[in-house]
């Protein structure tokens, strides 16, 4: 089934100015789904899932987070945090006129979805969370991100050269996921250093106490044998959120290379979120 696709932009305002963010919209209607990408990737990583969801009648929006893709890339670490990204998602919903949406995300995107669920619960219809980065990912996250942060600060020419070399590569001639890998090389040293600094030294995700207060329908997808996205974090999150469902991927790349099973689970979940009456949020402390 063919679905309409449109590219749009919106502006998020703060006391430091305004940031331009770009997004792609798939399908139409009032059953909104917002998909958030992993760090240092772009919205294109969710293109196959967005098209599959939109083909079932869902209205899917996939933004480039600040510092990624075709959105603005400020070189100020204070511009980047999970809290700021959450505010941008709410600004996107306001821009679209969407009262609420199912929020989905991978890695950093999952953490941002959680942030919106605890700071703006009335805007969240459900949560589709793949490979969240929580308590058990702190050490591996630091080990993975620190070399790139150091390179971007001390040897920026290496990051900028990779960008210059990758930009002319025609993505249309590459296999889809090879193109996504090339997209990941399109970084700007100043913005990349600022992004990693802001994320590494800020709040990574809502605290456990806050996560336990989430009551919207939640589907958590865990990756086995993933050194960065520990399965124990997915297990922890599924145990914390009342009624959450846990689905284990058969491998780190299952959803990328053999997506049928997990895309089917995601589609059924998003559809069920919009069919079911909205669940009331439990009062804190009860």
Helix-strand sequence: EEEHEHEHEHHHHHEHEHH
Helix share bin: 40-55%
Count all strands and give the number. Answer: 8
Gross morphology is globular
Query: Could you tell me how far the N terminus lies from the C terminus, measured between alpha carbons in angstroms?
Result: 46 Å
- Strand order, biggest sheet? 1-2-4-3-5-6-7-8
Here the CATH topology equals: Rossmann fold
- How many domains? 1
Structural class, by secondary structure, is alpha/beta
Q: β content, as a range?
A: 15-25%
CATH homologous superfamily name?
Answer: Alpha/Beta hydrolase fold, catalytic domain
Q: Rg to the nearest angstrom?
A: 18 Å
Number of helices: 11
Per CATH, the architecture is 3-Layer(aba) Sandwich
How is the quaternary structure best described?
single chain
Unreliable residue stretches: 281-286
Biggest β-sheet: count, sense, barrel? 8 strands, mixed
CATH class assignment: Alpha Beta
